[in-house]
Write the structure tokens for this entry.
Amino acid sequence: MREPVIKTEKLTKRFGDFVAVNEISFETYPGEIFGFLGANGAGKTTAMRMLCGLSIPTSGKATVAGFDVFTHRDDIKQNIGYMSQKFSLYEDLTVLENIEFYAGIYGLTDREIKDRTDELIQKLGLQKEAKHLVASLPLGWKQKLAFSVALIHRPKVVFLDEPTSGVDPVTRRQFWNMIYEASANGVGIFVTTHYMDESEYCHRISIMVDGNIEALDTPANLKKKFEADSMDEVFYQLARGAKRQAD
Amino acid sequence: MKQFFTFVRKEFYHVFRDPKTLLMLFGIPVVQIVLFGFALTNEIKNSKIVVADYAHDNASAEIINKIKASAYFDIQESLMSHEQIEEAFRSGKIKLAVVFPANFNNDLVHLNHAQIQVLADASDPNTATALTNYISSIVNDYQMALLKTQQIPYRIVPEFRMLYNPQLKGATNFVPGVMSLVMMLVCVMMTAVSIVREKELGTMEILLVSPFKPILVVISKAVPYLFLSLVNLTTILLLSVFLLDLPINGSILLLYAESSLFILTCLAVGLLISTKTDSQQAAMMMSLMGMMLPTLLFTGFLFPIENMPWPLQAISHFVPSRWYYIIVKSVMIKGLGISQIWKETLILFGMMLFFLGVSIKSFKIRLA
């Protein structure tokens, strides 16, 4: 078995009396697309923040890209990529400047920045637009660019926080093709989503309810287990039992 | 270090690609200096007046010449009857009239006592007060000159002495005021807005997830604005020296050093605001209400602090720009050195440390 890219053991985060994340344990592997599902307020964001090194867990154990979340948060940051639903590009910078900026803050050398920028522009077919402001790009392209930028420093695992919110179905489909490509290259994908049909694209999914992981398996197995036709139904059966109000 | 420069370069792109920011950065100091210097000036120039000289002697002629020579007055006509003067006032053609009675010189030489009638249009009391003050100081000047040449035994002459500003220039007040206002505006508001914008866009998340240190994010944000503020400072100083004829009497180096201290204080305040707000509008409102208003009210360049009730005077002590205003006035106008302003400098330094400490702490809390 290969080394997991994310490994958690009873990972817990408390804010005072409130247990945001309660002893979650799971592992994800290189090239695996891991769907991280849960209603709003279930603790997804808190869990993800801990794995990204933005928040220190209260108890439990976790490693990301082989580094401990308690002691090696800086190493974790160097080895993960991150993209949120906001795409997070600077609209008043050109395509080229955005790529160079993100490559730059990850400390790539000038040589690496140049090679990877050329490669990326080539791959996305953005030669003509390279010197245009990002603001002028269509939404779908921005999203692709944002995803490519999140991978510019060759991270071992990339966190995608609802990456397809507010995007039309065609663009979503294209975006998932990029995710599959990254996965085929051995990058671990950790993705949260609200679209249940999308969760079926994942290799495995976990569903969080009230801070606990209530289910973790392949989409097919989950549907069998809950005797459901779709992931939507599975999710609904689990989320119905939630006591917390959405935040 | 290279990462740091990458970041700073990006910040400069932001500034130079946004026409609104650019306009605010470089337009505001120029507009304010010109506005305060010419339009909103509280000194009165070229006021139309009349002089009615019934004496026609040496003394009256000399005083009239002095009035003519002053830039404040523009003498319309030299002799008018009382009726004509009244008519001119009513129609608003003149602001002030000076009447020399017949035998003015004789009275002065033989009785040691002579009178001049000064009539002012008091419908605008400020202008009237200012103009009569100008006239009385001109007359006083003349009296002083007389004292030296003639043996007049005893005469009480009110002493008008305008320290540091004999011409009563308004610029001495407002240039330091505009400096603190512009620094406040640029540093507090722009820093706050530029950090909050990253939060709004979601790019802040990316930066925090990257290996780039949060403290470096803050510093790289501050560097361009520190630099641009110093450029602004230079613009203001050049304008005031060459356009308003207001010389810098003290050490320029000290002025820049003190200004940098004030800029750092402002940047820290901007950072604090950015940690407390989540939208650009909120950050802007907070900067305007929280910093601009106190700067306008409590630095003493528009409203004298000594005239305020004591609770307001007490509040003014907590406004950084008040101290900066005193420092700039001392260095620029009075030409004082650090030995005379160390107290204000220390207070400003303390404020800077306080705001920086609080904001870095709350920036960290947000991360945890």
